[in-house]
Specification:
9 helices, 4-stranded mixed beta sheet, alpha+beta
């Protein structure tokens, strides 16, 4: 990039009719709104169960890789190395399946160009062994990747980072047996619990990189146990489709002349509406009741975490999310938080991710908004 140019990050939201629906992304490219080479990351909400056997995530990633291979002039596997793709399963309640496309382009530097805009940086950890998942190896590798992504995003101060999205792996029976065949144990032999351990270790890696948790407070034993250790900006999502971590850092930086900005707050519990309103106000959209149509048009994305409180209570009242044997607790939590957010913003295409181990306080979680200025 020459000194007469500056970077710009744009965000595009497109609905999906099914997990393999790539029509919206391809339409953005065909219209000229997006150049395929400029795509840096794609977030997606898919309508699976969000659990170990949610193959809608891998299905969506595969469909996107194949769809973008021709526009990028490479094979599908190379697409996965160029573009970070984070698919979060579960659109319970009224949540709407959709994709968020993040692009990076160069624009001419002008005196009227916006300053300190939305920036994006991506990085990938090396592939993990099964015995690394949910342990210090994953924490430290994630912290390193966050640092690399910050450099790419031109963000020098941790406080300018507002959201770090991580896609991380999980354990399957086959992966557990493979580790045992080499004489290694794993963090847990419960494949569903392994999702929490992977998300938790990844979140602690973000906390370490951003100075939210000191390294001396971290070791294998704290993962999913020390719930007082958390990041207010981490969002981690586990999936069966990978064995490394994909890290996307979103923040505001003078290095970017984007028309959008990102702001965040931390929800203290699942119904912390003031935190949501605060994030909107920080971004210039004061919420007095539900956002009106004009404000909704400026709201490019809502990113949030959801998890049931381990106490079984929300402000003293009992909830049954952890006791329901028919519906997984994280599915309840996504529907609950999704409803709270939708009531404020007047939209249901929200990126609400379940499983908030070490991502905000117990029962709460980070919420971020990306707004067009």
């Amino acid at each position: 990039m020459n000194r007469d140019s500056v970077r710009r990050c744009d965000v595009f939201r497109t609905p999906t009719a099914h997990p393999a629906d790539t029509d919206g992304v391809l339409a953005l490219i065909a219209s000229g709104a997006v150049a395929a080479k400029d795509i840096r990351a794609i977030f997606g909400k898919t309508e699976g169960n969000g659990c170990v056997n949610d193959f809608t995530r891998a299905y969506a990633v595969t469909a996107l890789q194949h769809a973008l291979a021709a526009p990028l002039g490479c094979d599908p596997a190379e697409v996965g190395r160029q573009i970070a793709m984070v698919m979060s399963g579960g659109t319970e309640g009224g949540l709407s399946p959709h994709l968020l496309v993040f692009t990076e382009s160069e624009v001419r530097r002008t005196e009227t160009a916006p300053s300190r805009g939305l920036g994006i940086g991506t990085a990938f950890t090396p592939a993990f062994q099964p015995e690394d998942i949910g342990r210090m190896a994953q924490i430290e590798a994630t912290a390193d990747a966050v640092g690399q992504a910050m450099v790419k995003a031109g963000i020098t101060r941790p406080e300018d980072v507002h959201y770090v999205q991580v896609k991380c792996p999980l354990l399957t029976g086959e992966r557990i047996l493979e580790a045992a065949s080499r004489g290694h144990t794993v963090a847990t032999s419960d494949t569903y619990q392994s999702m929490g351990y992977s998300r938790g270790a990844s979140a602690l890696g973000v906390a370490l990189a951003l100075g939210e948790v000191a390294r001396e407070n971290l070791d294998d034993s704290v993962v999913c146990q020390r719930l007082d250790l958390w990041s207010g900006r981490a969002s981690t999502s586990a999936g069966i489709e990978l064995m490394h971590n994909e890290v996307i850092v979103l923040g505001n930086s003078e290095a970017w002349a984007s028309d959008a900005i990102i702001c965040h707050r931390v929800m203290q519990d699942a119904i912390d509406l003031p935190a949501v309103a605060g994030a909107l106000a920080d971004a210039g959209l004061p919420a007095a009741g539900q956002l009106d149509e004009r404000a909704r048009e400026k709201l490019l994305a809502v990113l949030a975490k959801a998890d049931p409180s381990s106490s079984g209570r929300i402000r003293g009242a009992r909830h049954i999310m952890l006791d329901d044997s028919d519906i997984n607790a994280t599915r309840h939590a996504r529907a609950l938080v999704g409803g709270v957010l939708a009531g404020v913003v007047g939209r249901t295409d929200l990126f609400v991710s379940g499983g908030a181990e070490h991502q905000g306080p117990d029962g709460g979680g980070p919420v971020a908004v990306i707004v067009q200025r």
